[in-house]
Write a structure and sequence with these properties.
Layout: H1 7-25, H2 28-37, E1 47-49, H3 63-69, H4 73-86, H5 92-106, H6 116-133, H7 137-155, H8 165-192, H9 198-210, H10 214-227, H11 233-241, H12 252-263, H13 265-268, H14 271-282, H15 296-309, H16 314-326, H17 330-340, E2 343-345, H18 352-363, E3 373-376, E4 384-388, E5 393-397, E6 402-407, E7 413-418, E8 426-429, E9 435-441, E10 445-452, E11 458-465, E12 468-472, E13 479-484, E14 488-493, E15 498-503, E16 513-516, E17 522-527, E18 530-535, E19 540-546, E20 552-557, E21 564-569, E22 573-578, E23 583-589, E24 595-600, E25 606-611, E26 623-627, E27 633-637, E28 644-649, E29 655-660, E30 664-669
Antiparallel strand pairs: 1-2, 3-30, 4-5, 5-6, 6-7, 8-9, 9-10, 10-11, 12-13, 13-14, 14-15, 16-17, 17-18, 18-19, 20-21, 21-22, 22-23, 24-25, 25-26, 26-27, 28-29, 29-30
Helix pairs in contact: 1-7, 2-5, 4-5, 5-7, 6-7, 7-8, 7-9, 8-9, 9-10, 9-11, 10-11, 11-14, 12-14, 14-15, 15-16, 16-17, 16-18, 17-18
Length: 671
Amino acid sequence: MWQSLATVRESVLSCLKLLEAFVVGVRVSFVLWLVFFSPVNLLPNGVLALGQSADEAAPKQPECVRLLQEKDYAGLERLIGELRKKAVPGDLDARGTLNQCYTDLAEPFIEDQAAADEVLEIRFEQLSEWVKVKPSSAGHIALAENRMNHAYRVRGTKFAGVTADEKLEAAHQASLEADRLLKVAEDLMEKEGVVDPKLFATWLRTGMLAQFNTARMRKLVTSALDADPWYFNPVDTYAQYLRPRWFGEEGDLLVMADELSRQYASKTGDSLYAFVAISAFSQGEITELSDDSFQWSRVRRGLEDWLKKVPDSLYLLAYKAKFAHLVKDRTAAKDAVEQLGFRYHTTVFPDAADYLRTYKWAKHSGEKELDCEVVEFGLSPAMDLAFVDGGDSVAVAIRGTSLPVYSLSDGSFRYWVDLQVAGCERIASDPEGAVLYVASPRRTRTDVAFIDIETGEKKSLSALRGRILDFATPGVPNLLYAANGAGELQRWEVDKSSGSSWSSSDLGTNLRAMAVAPDARRVVSAGGKKVVVWNQESNKRDRTFEVDVASVLSVAWSPTSPDWVAVAGSGSAASIWSISDGTLVSTFLGGTSDFSDLAFSPDGKRLVAGSKSLEDVTKAGDVLVWDVNSGKLVGTLTGNRLGVRAVAVSPDGAKVLSAGEDGTLRIWPMP
């Protein structure tokens, strides 16, 4: 365990623990109760119907706070006594109401964060007077919660090396004070003849900051479960404690889940096993379910055991659907989404598209597609496409630490490229398909790297401010171009790991798309109604012209007509423009939605467009194919369950590919 490592490593670990503790500590008990057990109307922002938003009710002063402020301690203890009687083991709503009372007492609702410390200290004085005038276990628990909240606030989120010593010392003293208060609360509970598992939940929070040893933390969590085996809040704290970045080692969470589940199987079935799996998955400790990790058979059984207790829990149903999608159990996923309908839980599915990806997959029959080959990527949208291995394979950008490379010749995964980072949004390849360029978004920048397909070697190129919205490689080796949402274009000479950038001031934050001429002498950037043509030899603007599209989302340079650029975006038409004089060459009709991406066939005879509604996330996208010379629509390729993010034509011109919001790669024969 971590306690056996050298002092310097313990110091680093302590920094990480304190950093994470601030995030999880302030209101963990009530938040977890809301997430797992509460009815829908108690969590207005957690559960949404598609196309709806939720209004938050103005907070009202709780009864327990009113009694505290009026110094009616007898009334306050009667109230808590009544709540304790109702919170019998297994009554999740009553337990949650009691926990909310402690939360309200420990820290008042604060709108003005600038005054948070002062307000917290005022509440500390009120609680201190309560336990002085009328000592009780409830008062000491609330006061200990208050001190822990204070400890996290005063400590802050910075690492120890850049945090003032007085802040570290103040946080340490606050955690010691909480520990002392909880020891008093334990003695008072014994005298009062009650058992309140909230004591152990607060003590576990204290142990995270005070660095209790594993044996003590394990005893606290089992004491809480002995009091109420359905009170899972302390289990979540213990799971965080056992994460490898804290006190644990690889595999500790799985052992914990198995042991606790078996210990309390007669009361909760496999629910505790499922609970720890959710905790590990939501914190990024696991990304899959397998025989060597958390087993789907037990997680599913645990969720079903749990749902017997709270059959209307949208959170649990959402996780059942999500996990089932992850392991491709369409039967279980369909059962869950049929109960959910078009409601989704924002803790499990951050936005509507994430839920719809699972919903539509679950409702899909699963029968073999008649008109296209389908490759499923599960929970992740397919974001972008790039050909590698000389055009024999296609790489698909998905959210994850690995990037799949799929063989177009034999229909199998050739390999997975280890990105060493969580996901990418844009990818591109060099003319020979031997090098893959990857754009990985961060908070305020996008890291760009290139990967040698043969060796797997990865090298960083640079980083762009903001988020990269388009990537391009011309038919010239060792050149890469990118555009970001700040209106910046960047050009790299990859073999020299150097580059230059310039600002597209005409577009600014409207910059959405770019394309490079096959000879790399010119670049077009576009956004809104404007298209800007850049001369690469002078790094200056050649021309700016407007197109008849309200918002351009994609541009593509003809591989055979150096003067032609295709443009599409909002609206149901694509068009080709002459960049030499900014005139319209031809218009292509036939769509019923907006166009998200464009691609020419290698011979320049076909124009392909992927559609994605800008207004309706539930709408399925099609792929349209036009004959460039006649302007006629020669094919409408259907099957995507959601919008299309990217399209491409294979180097031999025989296949059309799409990357979909529904998490699929689809491959059709060229019409």
